[in-house]
Records
---
Amino acid sequence: MQGPKIDKVIFWVALIVILCFSVPLVLFPAEGRVVLNKALGWTTKTLGWGYLWFTIGAFGVLLYYALGKFGNVRFGGPDARPEFSLPSWVAMLFCAGIGASVMYWGTIEWAYYYSGPPFGIEPKSREATEWAATYGLFHWGFTAWAVYCIPTLPLAYLYWNRKRPVLRLSAACAGVIGERAARGIPGKIIDVLFMFGLIGGVGTSIGLGTPMLSAGLAELFGLERTFMLDVLVIAIWGAIFGFSVYSGLQKGIKVLSDINLWLIVFVLAFTFLFGPTIFILDTFTNSVGLLIQNFVEMSFYVDPISKGEHFIAAAAEGKSYVDSGGTFPEWWTIFYWAWWIAYAPFMGLFVARISRGRTIRELIAAEIVGGSLGCWVFFAILGNTSMFFQLEGTLDMSAMVADGQAPEAIIATIVAIGDRVLPFGVPLLIVFVVLAFIFGATTMDSSAYTLSSVATEEQTESSEPARWHRFFWAIALAAVSLSLMFAGGKDSLKALQAASVVVALPLMVVLVIMTASFMKWLKEDYPAAGETRISVASSPPRRD
């Protein structure tokens, strides 16, 4: 069975765009690195403020939806029942949206802020330590998940309530640009932009998770972490992905997500119980207080004074402002918001597909509250434990990160956690590596599923994209990730940051159009409280 037909225009244009992006990075890595750095510098320094306004705006819009009269609107109609149980549903949206990245950043992100804190704070001071533990919660918190949730609402409403058998951003923009434009060239452009943005965002995630897994395998088998080991990691991901593709959405992604949930619970519970428990609780409590107290300032922090100083210094040296050093928000907050924006349409499409029977309010709560708390648990337990080892003198995490050994620092943290009780470092590391592998495979699987859905002409509720189609986009994701890592060399983080920031720029405009389109549909279909012009049949019972 071949599955639904592909949309040849979207498929081939997207493929050509991706090849034009990836191939030069592999053939000319040094030149590609220069171009990526310039693109990153120009975007963050010139348009960084726009990313900040967009994310806080998304958070405000979702508060309006959740607390307003449309909060009880149910995807699939008033009698629709959820397709998945609540734990499976939350696990699927969390694992798809986060992947192995939360294991990477949740363990080590604080070390970057510890050495290079915001607000002009002295590096490695007590104040820098407190902010280092706090900023991760901000970057992986409410506004970040609000960006994820923004496209989910119009896509879920279009698919389940308006019964459009497509999962495309262009269709969700039809309320503003019109059906003719959505089905025509403007719509094709929107969908290709989405596919390019998703591959850039997922490429960043895989590009960060792969070195961490390579470092774990190197530690377990006494190997050297090399680029070829990175290739092997992605090949293993592909094998796990193959099982999931063959099994389909119900048995594939759902099973991997459920396994992930139990492994997450084990690793975090072990670390919490046998690690520095009181330090974890105290530091997390203090960080939440700092975040609540300074949320508005952090949301709008652009650091214009430092930007001005960099501009003056660059001019004195005869350099372009784009080539000058970046500020804290340019390196971190703007990068993060761009990364979430690049990923957001994918999350919207995937979560829309699995959210039949949920209300608007339930979906917002699951993503903003559930997603934030899920990330915070990683930062609170793994991150604060890693910080404890730094302060205790067990490990010099800051020095390792400064030397470009962040993946090795993460693995050293996991081994040190296991060895605190018994010589349990290696068994815990094995569990950690397996967890990261499944996390990455889940991300690759759900991303390939979404890409193939967008490049498919039509889908019904019971159909899925062709298996070969999903395999193809998984290979494309792996190729882009490897090309970014290869072009970035030792400073692959900068290349990955550049990819996310640049591809997110046009997607912000698309997400604004989708939001306006969704509001228009809601006002048309629910002109007054308790009244609806659309009658939707009930959905079949839930499948756990």
---
Amino acid sequence: MDKKNTTIGVLLLIAAFASAYFMRPAPALQTTAAATTTATTTAAPAAVPALVAPAAPVATANDAAFAALVGDNAKATVTTLSNDYVELRLTDFGGAIRDVAFRKYFTAKGSAEPFVFNQTHAAPILAFSGYPGLDQNTHFDLVSATATEVVYRTIFENRIEVTRLYTLSATGDTTGDPYRIRHKTTFRNLTNQTAPLPNIISLGTSALVSVNDAGLYLNVASYDGEKPDVIDRGQLEGGGFLSSMGLTNNPAKPVLENAGKIEWATVKNQFFASIYTPEKPGTGIIVRRVELPPLEGSTRPNIGLTGAIKLDLPVLPPNGTASFAGDLYVGPKEYTRLAKFSHNEDKVMQYDRYFFNRIFFSGYVAPAMNWLMNSMHTSVGNWGIAIILMTLLLKVISLPFTLAASRSAKRMQKLQPLMQAIREKHKDQPQKLNQATMELFKEHKVNPMGGCLPVLITIPLFVGFYSMLQGTAELRFQSFLWAGDLSAPDTIGRIFGLPINIMPILMGATMVFQMRLTPQPSIDSAQQKVFKFMPFFFTLICYNFSCALALYSTINGLFTIGQQLVVNKYTKDDPTPTPLGVPSGTGKKIKNVTPKKK
């Protein structure tokens, strides 16, 4: 059994190391866009703050593996719709959405500039693609523009009239989500001949958001009504370990196309997403990589993703009309907001994407923890305090189970001399050894698995909280104590280039102290070394994760320490189990239960 436990411990360490290696943050620095000047038609009456305009077309390497970046046409006119949450900027070239600025979310800590989604892009959002003559370079006439609605119109080759309508919820309108845009495109055939229609619509371009963004949630995803399908950058970049050794040929893919039912499709990064939900399901999704402007101070390439959805559109009949419509959400990945939508758009959060998340039911735990954290924040108004209160509430709920497990572990520790005596007595009789051991547990009312219960409760909560934090936009740039951003490491300085993160160090200290308080069974030296090393290894793994996760673990550890002190105080005077052959309840102390050597 000891060898088996040692093996399990080593395998867990290997799994943790692999997790730390493959999920380590990659350097990502912010880009600075050069300002360009465009004429602007303001449809919204509210004043619009000065924003950084998208960069001019960026020269990239002549590499077919990447989609080309584009800037504004020199003759483009931008029309703006806005409310208290977003500033939607539409261009008359393509009759589409050039970019979207978020008034509640900023580019950097302390900055007044809103974060702009699709600022540097391969195409405007909802622009046509793959249909020469009717794409992002096609000029549309502005038919009308009000505070909530913009209409564009063009005639393609004197054959097809195309009208594009965009509607944004006004400030104070509670009937719709302020980040959601209603869109409709209508085609009218001006001839007596049938005509195919453009059926590929751009979803936008996603990029890394900060120096702490590892790119794990920068992807293009879709939902078929049952489960989401996620396409990462790695699926297009080729290479890999086997390829580097010449064992396989895995070249970079210029484009990746997945066919199938598409209820919604999204292009997203760690905190923000563009989600298009058509009225009629689409038939496929198309993904390409984008080489973004070089990141300042980094030698690594800055690679984003651009995506498009393929729609199921009929052939346009002679003198006939056809249309498609849908809802476009461009905004933060706020679970409580996305959960209100009717097509499971909340699955964009990826709470249960990885196998490790699924085996610990993260898909159920993470949404509940997100809701609980938001509820606490509504009450106290501070995200750090909300995390602390949420942690304490979870500990109180699980208190009866953990107390029972702690008492069981304490009793189990006191049984170790008797168990050692049984092992010596039946060391060559495995069946009798197991039978005697079970009788000992039954006699002293000890559950050998009782000590595992706190771990079984804690791990799903920890994994769920980790999953929830990865895309929770609400925590971005929220400060607590010395931490300036709960969604990032709480680095207070550097020594020889190494970051000093206080919260993970506190988390590791509580784990070490907690381990010293917790009763430990008699285990071999190899297992003891594994258990002693675990707090340090776990601290190393979590060192560059968001400090909100370390805050949760630290509070959880402090509560457990207090709980264990109480358990140790009230169980230290329990009667010591009597040795074999002595009736229980006599209270006699065990002097020597090890058989004497002959």
---
Amino acid sequence: MLTETLTTLPIAQSVAQRFNRARYAKAVWLGVTIFLTLFQGYRMYTGGASYSDIGWIVFWLAVTATFTNPRYGLYCLFFFGMVADANLLRTYPFNKNFSSGESLFYIGGAYIFSPLELFIGLLFLSWLGTAVMRRKLNWHQNDLFWPVMVFSGFMVYGLLWGIARGGANINIGLWEVRPILYLTAVFLLTSNLITTREHVNHIYWLLTIALFIEGIAGVLFAKNMLNWDIGSVEKITEHSAAIHINTYILLMILSWLYKGSPKRRILMPLLAPPVIFTYIATQRRTAFLTLGMMLGLMTIFLYQQNRRLFYFIVPPGAVLAVVYVLAFWNVTSAAGMPAQAIKSVVAPDQISAKDKSSDEYRLIENMNSAFTIHTYPLTGVGFGQKFIIAFPMPDISFFDWWEYITHNSIMWIWMKTGFGGFLSMIAMIGVAVMVGVRVIWRMPGGDMKAIAITGTFFFIMHFMYAYLDMSWDTQGMLYLGITMGIMGNLEWIVDKPLPLPRKRWRWQPEPEPVPGLQPVPDEPLIKMKLW
């Protein structure tokens, strides 16, 4: 009897302690919610209701969700970060500083940080605070951890070195490096908070909805601001938005190819029209080229899955693509942009004067980047320092940072952080692609297979795009950090056994186990599957 009492006493105390902690946490959050409600109500009562108040209410709800469950906060961070576009929604506050006058969350000029950065800090506070309360940190370290950490270390070095050299514009240096550090933060959070197939699906549904909202915003912008004349402007969205929409198109196609969930197969095509319209109106030649290359790679997967469908689609599709390029060879409107993208590679001497001017500027800029790299090959110039302008460039002084940031985002890293930063970036890209290819082979099919291919193709498209245009922006880094966290975790996630699905009706056949992780095929098997 005494032995039983001594054995059960610690267990009873542990349960009681957990119950008390949970009750205390609920009381605290109830008090916080009441306080925020009264505070926001007072602001609306004294100053009158406005769109800003609606934004603050949504923000406080997201903060409450973050401290209820850190994973909910990660969902909010990704969704609100991806739905924003500085060109389409100028007052949208999440990615802009509290000091930005056009932002709905404008507070004052001294607050030089953004709701996004505040949210990242609160997310880490919630995640680590939860671990302290539970006295256990569920830490998961995947294959991409050290490549990301080493790369991030060189980015910090670039900032410190730029400041140490003297004469740096610290404000611009911080603006240069801060989005890249978002990648690090979001990668760590994703690696430890996204742990099931359901979580992965939630992330990609949030991406789908965010890009659909951005598509609607693009349609309204074209109607209200341009009167549908999308050819009158160079672009309507931020630079990297088109690459993100590429992944929408790829995931939509792959969901049908690999028999993803019925919801995804039905809803994504239904939501696609405004997304496709905004994609065309964005007029990014690099995006069209990378999408074409990824669709070409996808024919390999189509050949593996369904050879009859391959021969039905690919040869006629190739013929139609050639006919389109020939028909729109000299059409410079938005409808001809894909053809102009191919033309810029095949016959660069025949492109329009506008595109030729853009290419010439990039060529001179690359020459100055190369000169700067040869001058500082090992250390780089550091963030906040101007690159050397050895060859005169056309005047684009309307862009405040034209002497600091270049279009070639790959060589820009070398120019700013030296050979070590460049090498760490190449290593990170290489490891990410290798992990992605391995994950593709090991996925059993369905949504996970489609997501694995989409994520790997996004790595490739993003860094192909980075070679030609500015890509280290807020949205791009959020998306890249989330994707790297998911791809690094996907094998570990899919390897977890799942319970058998329940029978809905008696006459249904017995449910079969959900397919798990597949072995990596050896070389002969790969050749057999391909040929």
---
Amino acid sequence: MTELAAQCTPPPTELPEDKLLQQLCNLLGGYLDPTQINTIVRAYHFGAAAHTGQFRRSGEAYICHPVSVAITLAGMRMDANGIMAAILHDVIEDTPITKAELAREFSPEVAELVDGVTKLSKIDSRSRAEAQAENVRKMFLAMAQDLRVIIVKLADRLHNMQTLGNMPPEKKRRIAKETLEIYAPIANRLGMNDIRHQLEALGFKAMYPNRYKAINNAVRKSRGHRKEVIDTIQSAIQNRLSETALECKVAGREKNIASIYQKMLNKKISFSDVFDVHAFRIFCHSVDDCYRALGSVHNLYKPIPGRFKDYIALPKANGYQSLHTTLMSPYGMPIEIQIRTHEMHRISESGIAAHWLYKSDSEKSDTIKARANEWLRDLLEIQKSVGDSLEFIDNLKVDLFPHEVFIFTPLGKIIKLPRGASIVDFAYMVHTDVGNACISARIDKKLVPLQTRLENGMTVEVITAAWARPNPLWLNYVVTAKARSCIRAYLKNFNQQEAIKLGRRLLEKELLSLNLRLEDIDDARIMSLLHSMKQHSLNELLEDIGLGNRMPFLVAKRLGQSDVNAAVKLEDQLTHHTTPLVIKGTEGMVVSLAKCCRPIPGDPIIGFFNPGKGIVVHHQECRNSNDVRKKQTTWLDVEWSQEAAGEFSAEIRIELLNQRGSLATIASTISAMESNIENITVVSQDERVSVDLLVLAVHDRVHLANIIRKLKKLSIVLKITRIKA
């Protein structure tokens, strides 16, 4: 990539790129025909010519990097177009060659693959983080068209990580951080465990070199200390399997250093307490043999309760299948065992690459590919509704670190969700429309609230209603990227439509005072105004007015002038119009009631424009409104509609005798008046008197007055007043 390319000193006289090309051709000869190999060699010469004069920091010709990437892909038996895309993956970014030239020289398919891997150039971003986020977003869009894009990208990142040695430490850490946060989890999500483990190990080594060195030394020492014990356990397992006539192979393996570090970090333990540094895998010929082998090892050593996982019956989201169990050996050391078929092992190492690597077992590889495509479709749906690339990356990271639970629909379909998911997450996973309209749910036929956390094996039935809408509070407990992005998208659109409606009402009210109507103003004048205000559409202008970013009377005055462009500094010429805007109360997000004075129907009120939030309605006696009222361009007269209905919050201050049952008497009196206490705050209290603030739910000013009158008649009440500021 560009970061690794540098115009340095010429390479040494020997040509390592020729050796790499020969190595590539040897690998390709095992599965491609000579015509395809000749086309790939032509792509090599094309790329080498394009990269002429470019060298890596190590001093070797830059073409060595894309050929090394192609060698990795050839090991996966990638098709000819994928190999050519790997060889040419940097020519659009680092050379004058264009996508159109590649399409003419090779094929449109190769050009699309190269373009999908290429970073965005000349990106207008506020930060490096945003630029990187935009690049990842673009790559995922390309992945949705062709999965080979991510395979090439992962091989590219793997070779970059293998050759980080000549990088400055700061750049090493930055590239390693991106690898650990994005690329290694993507490899995991696509089931490519071999690539993932290499990326994790190289990323950890670059990110924490001292920690890597310390753990690596400890692992080497432990090999000597534990070798005899490990060999004895492995022999015992192999012998027990042979006794039960199972033809299975037992292999020991060593956990990678990044996994050991994560375990030490998560469990807050030292290396000496990590007993499963060495683990065992049992490879069987059939699924039936796997379960029989599980019974044999459980008879050999005692299993540790709660440490068994069956990923054969319920595979992971990336298609991984295996039986996991942890046993207690006679040496007091827990040992981890994974049991799988040979085919499951190949799939677990290759993942999505199995589609190319194991053509003989097309059904399995097609299943893995289908899972990957399903995941990408969900990501595509998410990216359509997110606000920017950084939000997309946040959602992606949530999706890349799943710890699944398996939930059943009433018809028996299994849906996988991250651990900690709520019913809202489940509803959105079923369908976006189900999520948007959910109001409750039944778990195992019992009614439960939407924020209920789901556990393995639950059967969930979502209850929906036509009138239901997503609630902003859902964002506090959803954990899936799909649910979060769908809720945000709906609320954003709802807020936008509400702001447009309010903006239209405000503008029409001001135009009426100028004896004009919006529909009577010709399109040319509106377009001229939009151009001068740098707005793209009338709805965009109305939204700005509704959100309080533009004053409606200024816009109306400019629309009413014969020469729109001559209107400058209108604030000096305006007088505030007193035609009130009628409101019904809590009308939504862009008309809200101030919490400082809590106005209710019947109160004299005034509205203030709050940029980005719309109109905030205050009581006219509210102290907070005094300063703002002086700026006549930021407030407007509002009045309650005759149809204002519902419950509104009002705050009262009450002094009462501090005796047993006082609050209960107050509460029962308020309840008898068909009101409800929303909140109680004790301001001060002594042996005789308690001063409390109560927030009540009332219908209007008359309702509140009746409640206060009733409370004053109680012998325990000394004084009661309403809080208006």
